[in-house]
Design goal:
7 helices; mainly alpha; 171 residues
Length: 171
C-alpha cells in the first residue's frame, strides 16, 4: 500500500492514512468474499444458508495483520491500567444511575417517565404513581431506564451522575 501525500501536515496525513487503510481492508473484504462466493458456487439464498464455511471474510494477509493488531491492542491498550480504571469508573457510574432511576423513577426525564407509565398518548402531566394497564413488558421500568442510559454519551452520564450524587459541585 502506498499513500501519496506530499506536503500534508500531521492532521491531514493521519486522515489520509486512515482512509487508505480502511479502503484497503474494504477492498480486500469484497475481493475475498467474491472469491468465496464463486468457489462455493453460491447462486441463491439457500446456498448461502447451507454453506459449510464462512462466505464473508478477509483474505489471509489482512486476517494475519488484523490478528497481530488485535493481539497488540489487547496486551498494550485494553489492559492498560488507565483504560481499566476508566472502564471501572464508567461501570460504577452506570450502575449507580440505573439503581437511582429505578429507585426514584420521577428523576427520569418526562419523555421516559411517560413511556414507562404508558402515558405517551395523554396530553399534559400525568399524576404521580399513575401507570396504565396498556403498558407492555418492553416498557417495564428497568427497560426504560436501560434504554435511557444506553442513549447517553460518556460525558452526559458523568454530568447526570454529578447532578444526582454530587449536587454541591458546580457544573
Amino acid at each position: 500500500m502506498q499513500v501519496h501525500t506530499p506536503g500534508l501536515s500531521e492532521g491531514p496525513l493521519r486522515v489520509a492514512v486512515i482512509r487508505e487503510l480502511l479502503a484497503w481492508q474494504v477492498t480486500d473484504l469484497l475481493a475475498e468474499t467474491a472469491n468465496r462466493l464463486a468457489s462455493a458456487g453460491v447462486k441463491s439464498v439457500d446456498d448461502v444458508r447451507s454453506a459449510r464455511q464462512p462466505l464473508v471474510g478477509f483474505g489471509p494477509e489482512v486476517r494475519k495483520l488484523k490478528a497481530e493488531l488485535e493481539r497488540f491492542l489487547r496486551e498494550r491498550v485494553y489492559k492498560h491500567h488507565r483504560v481499566l480504571r476508566m472502564t471501572a469508573n464508567g461501570k460504577r457510574i452506570l450502575e449507580s444511575l440505573f439503581a437511582e432511576y429505578v429507585r426514584a423513577p420521577a428523576l427520569l426525564p418526562e419523555k421516559h417517565l411517560r413511556r414507562w407509565t404508558g402515558a405517551d398518548a395523554i396530553a399534559g402531566p400525568t399524576p404521580l404513581g399513575w401507570v396504565t394497564a396498556a403498558r407492555t413488558r418492553l416498557d417495564c421500568l428497568e427497560r426504560v431506564v436501560g434504554d435511557y442510559l444506553a442513549g447517553m454519551t460518556d460525558r452526559f452520564a458523568q454530568l447526570e451522575y454529578r447532578r444526582l450524587f454530587l449536587p454541591s459541585i458546580e457544573l
